[in-house]
Specification:
14 helices, binds L-rhamnitol, binds zinc ion, two-stranded antiparallel sheet, TIM Barrel, single chain, alpha/beta
Length: 425
């Protein structure tokens, strides 16, 4: 039985919703226009539980963990591209891809971490050109014997530091190559796991070493037209509960003093702290930020993004602060216990939907009420907005963008699971 609404029903419902929003001074067509111009950078690593194509026997390390054993994870770059194509076909809009260094096409060659070169990413670039995706990039400073003692760029061992400095430098070259080829700047984001499980007695030395290593990593200037640098902070990881070298204060200071981008990951703060409240602080001092939209649950920073209050607050901050051109929205979650294409699709659709909800607010009216000190009216309107028919606008957007409306995207995922994913194991 087909329970999907007809095109006519979707359009009629949209027209009614449009009138409701117009009465508040909100132009739904303009909101959809802005939404269509805002890419989300999908993280490649949801497709294979952060394994990559260097050495599939290597376990994930660095204080992050993918749990679950759902069948069908991608085993090659071709399979990953196929899975991504499926996900993109179910998400309205035109979006970017966020690649990690261990996901190049080695064409059967056995490559170690510092053997990757720009040409290993040419198939990704060709695919991205064909499908109109920009690409972002990340050095992979974990899941490698040289990271086995828990330290990389901030290691006491110069040999270890030099290895990872080289890796980050190569990664920036790859990122710049990608950005130049695609004609849209690639954001290369450095995240390292370095930290201690138990209370250290020399916090200082690692932070000074990290600062020095990062200065070496970023020494070569790259054209911002093609390439932007970002650094990602974290509060704690599994096995680094007591101390993480690259904390928020560390990287905030680093980014401000060096004018790199700062990456705010929604799962990297104390549970009562939210990144929605950090965006306007950081953007007072930096031109641009990178977000890793994620969902922290207890100890895990990387659950699939759902339509939480905080997701909505993040998008509201971007829109209310008029920051759409200064925020790069990336995703960062990995769940191996559910269909991985569905994980991407659900998490990204939620992210786009939350952005739409933010674009449907009567922002200038709300800000006028606040400026005039009418906090009663501000509260009343904010609460009424929660009952507005944004779902009708969302459905119309999906229809216009040629992607499934409502839960029918799951039919496509089940079909793909039966036709493609099941055969992989
Ligand atoms: C880890 C960081 C980092 C990673 C990816 C795989 O806590 O969030 O961004 O998730 O690099
Ligand atoms: Zn992250």
């Amino acid at each position: 039985m087909n329970n999907s609404p007809s095109e006519q029903q979707i359009n009629q419902t949209y027209e009614l919703a449009k009138e409701r929003y117009a009465a508040l001074g909100v132009d739904t067509d303009a909101a959809l226009g802005l939404l269509a111009q805002t890419p989300i950078s999908l993280h490649c690593w949801q497709g294979d539980d952060v394994v990559g194509f260097e050495d599939p026997t290597r376990g994930l390390s660095g204080g992050i963990m993918a749990t679950g054993n759902y069948p069908g994870k991608a085993r090659s770059a071709d399979e990953l591209r196929s899975d991504l194509d499926m996900a993109y076909s179910l998400i309205p809009g035109s979006h970017r891809l966020n690649l990690h260094a261990i996901y190049g096409d080695s064409d059967g060659e056995k490559l170690d971490r510092n053997d990757w070169r720009p040409h290993h990413f040419d198939k990704w670039i060709a695919w991205a050109k064909e499908n109109n995706h920009g690409i972002d990039f990340n050095p992979t400073c974990f899941s490698h014997p040289m990271a086995d003692n828990g330290f990389t760029l901030a290691s006491l061992d110069k040999g270890v530091r030099d290895f990872w400095i080289e890796h980050c430098q190569i990664s920036r070259e790859i990122g710049a190559h990608i950005g130049e080829q695609l004609g849209t700047a690639c954001v290369t984001n450095v995240w390292i796991p370095d930290g201690y499980k138990d209370i250290p007695v020399n916090r200082r030395i690692h932070r000074e070493l990290l600062k020095q290593s990062l200065d070496d990593v970023f020494a070569k200037p790259l054209d911002p037209q093609h390439h932007l640098d970002a650094v990602e902070a974290k509060l704690f990881g599994i096995g680094s509960e007591s101390y993480v070298v690259g904390s928020h204060e560390f990287y905030m200071g680093y980014a401000v003093s060096r004018q790199t981008l700062l990456c705010l990951d929604a799962g990297h703060y104390h549970p009562t702290e939210v990144i929605s409240d950090k965006i306007s602080s950081v953007l007072t001092y930096l031109d641009e930020v990178l977000l890793h939209v994620s969902r922290g649950v207890r100890w895990d920073s990387d659950h699939v993004v759902t339509l939480t209050d905080e997701l909505q607050a993040i998008m509201q901050e971007i829109v209310r602060g008029d920051y759409l051109n200064r925020v790069h929205i990336g995703l960062d979650f990995f769940d191996a216990s559910i269909n991985r294409v569905a994980a991407w699709t659900i998490g990204t659709r939620n992210t786009v939907k939350a952005l739409l909800m933010a674009l449907l607010e009567p922002v200038s009216h709300l800000q006028t009420l606040e400026k005039e000190g009418d906090f009663t009216a501000r509260l009343a309107l904010l609460e009424e907005l929660k009952g507005m028919p944004f779902g009708a606008v969302w459905d119309a957007y999906c229809l216009r963008q040629g992607v499934p409306v409502g839960i029918s995207f799951m039919d496509e995922i089940r079909r793909y699971e039966n036709d493609v994913l099941v055969g992989r194991d």
